[in-house]
Amino acid sequence: MNYLAFLQKEIHSAAFATIAADGRPQVRIIDIMLCDESSLYFLTAKGKEFYRQLTEQQFVAVTGVKDQKAVSLRGKVRIADPALLDEMFEQNPYMKEIYPGNTRKALEAFQIYEGEGEFFDLTCKPVFREAFTLSGSTAYALSYHIIDACTGCGSCLAVCPQSCISSASVPYRIAAEHCLHCGACRKVCPSGAVRFD
Amino acid sequence: MNYLAFLQKEIHSAAFATIAADGRPQVRIIDIMLCDESSLYFLTAKGKEFYRQLTEQQFVAVTGVKDQKAVSLRGKVRIADPALLDEMFEQNPYMKEIYPGNTRKALEAFQIYEGEGEFFDLTCKPVFREAFTLSGSTAYALSYHIIDACTGCGSCLAVCPQSCISSASVPYRIAAEHCLHCGACRKVCPSGAVRFD
């Protein structure tokens, strides 16, 4: 599955988080206008606090959901080629009603060009998650996993909501792609054999 | 319109933003389990980074959208009465599949109990926005407005995408509830009469 295309075409209206002037998080809904193989494009108006935050922080966290399938990512942001503005309006004609005629000049095109994210699907049983990068390189994601200190006592098996711990061999093995990250296994393990890193 | 109820019942799956260990924003989709007149309730698992961030920062920014109607808010967070956990599962029975049986013990209930937000409706022409507080007290929101330095030259009228500046009297007047915050009027005003505060 192409997660960037899913985010742009299917979810389309996503949440973009930055840090506000008070040092705390701020988040608002932004439509994703275009995507290519390794980046996303969106617009904002030059008079907004969001514009100032983007140009200063050059970083944004994004998430969106549709039908219990969510995509989240964090990445670097830069101002995009202004020539893309007209293409964005062609691909998203509803924008012509919000910014009619020449008023689109108030807008700036931005690109998320580097970063990593995660897809999370609650419609699967067990749930399914997968990390990805915008560049297509191997993604590194934090995960719960079991180290050699595992004695195979079985305590963790009873508390895993997704039954995604295999006891076929010792140390036991957590199927990271089905893990909720709830931490119940780590809490009950008498041997300190569950790690999250 | 009751914006908290719209966020909980209609949007339901919203974006929750915090600050990650790297000092940058992080955002993920969280379902809003319950609401009352002045607060929202949600769950997260104790093994998650999000749980740690919530207990440390005691603050969260939330946004969600449905059918081009968005609600965003920022507010204080605290751990809620654990007795609410079972009520949340009763009101949201799909949670029983994700955390079956006793595995719900891995979860903690949180409450957003103080804060302020904004409703934004793109289906209206012109767009409609309204600030609100969780407590029901008068909301204070940043807005574009025109001060006495306005000469009535008309420059701003031509660039407002929503045609929401009235020239019936001088100083002109911006209808804040229909303003996109694009800043085009401020940019073209030769008298510096447009403020955003």
UniProtKB/TrEMBL annotation, chains A, B:
Residues 140-166, 170-197 form the 4Fe-4S ferredoxin-type domain. It comes from Christensenella tenuis. The keyword Lipoprotein does not apply. Keywords: 4Fe-4S, Iron, Iron-sulfur, Metal-binding. Ferredoxins are iron-sulfur proteins that transfer electrons in a wide variety of metabolic reactions. It comes from the Bacteria. InterPro entries: 4Fe4S_Fe-S-bd, 4Fe4S_Fe_S_CS, PSI_iron-sulfur_center, Pyridox_Oxase_N, Split_barrel_FMN-bd. This is Ferredoxin.
